[in-house]
Design goal:
This protein has 4 helices and 12 strands, in the order H-H-E-E-E-E-E-E-E-E-H-E-H-E-E-E. The protein has about 190 residues and is an alpha+beta fold. It has one domain: G protein-activated inward rectifier potassium channel 1 (Immunoglobulin-like, Sandwich). The strands form 3 sheets. Strands 1, 2, 5, 9 and 12 form a 5-stranded mixed sheet that branches. Strands 6, 7, 8, 10 and 11 form a 5-stranded antiparallel sheet that branches. The N and C termini lie far apart (about 75 Å). The model has no long low-confidence stretch (mean pLDDT about 90).
Length: about 190
Amino acid sequence: MDFLLNIDWVQAIVVSTVTSFIFLLFLTIFRPRLRISRLILYRVKKDKNKAPILKDGKEQRTYTIKVVNWTFRNLIENKLELRIVKPFGGGKGISVKSVKIPLKSTEVLDFPSMISKRGRKNARYAKVFTINADLEKIWTEDYQYLEFRFFSKHGLSGYSKLTVKLFTDMDVIQEGTYGYGRSLNKKVF
């Protein structure tokens, strides 16, 4: 018990507080940070004569979602999915049923950062993901919503993060294309 009297308690508290602060800073800096567009944009598919391609009397559309890597390092082992969520039930609680919507690509092995040489070249830190379904056929009720999930792992620290974006209003589906680079907005012509 005499060794407790020989400890400089003020110094011990200061050192442990600084160490905890550095650890929290490390957790914050070395965790994946993504930005996901608030819009889902579509383009009408056209044939070689620039006429809209029709199926069952309706224009064929290609829907896209844009994601930007805001981390200072590459992200690895990235997985993504899009789901339509339908709340149901009532009374004391509401349950949800979700159905997966097919994407053209569901995995990205390497997602370069903005500051890396590979990332800056052709803005590879920004990716546009294509949805392989007609959203207007799937998303038919106001109470439904879309849930976009992006699971990523930091290339240096190995910390993981699941980023979820909810699209609760059908007005997020608009015609257009995304701006170049880190812009998540619709390109204005």
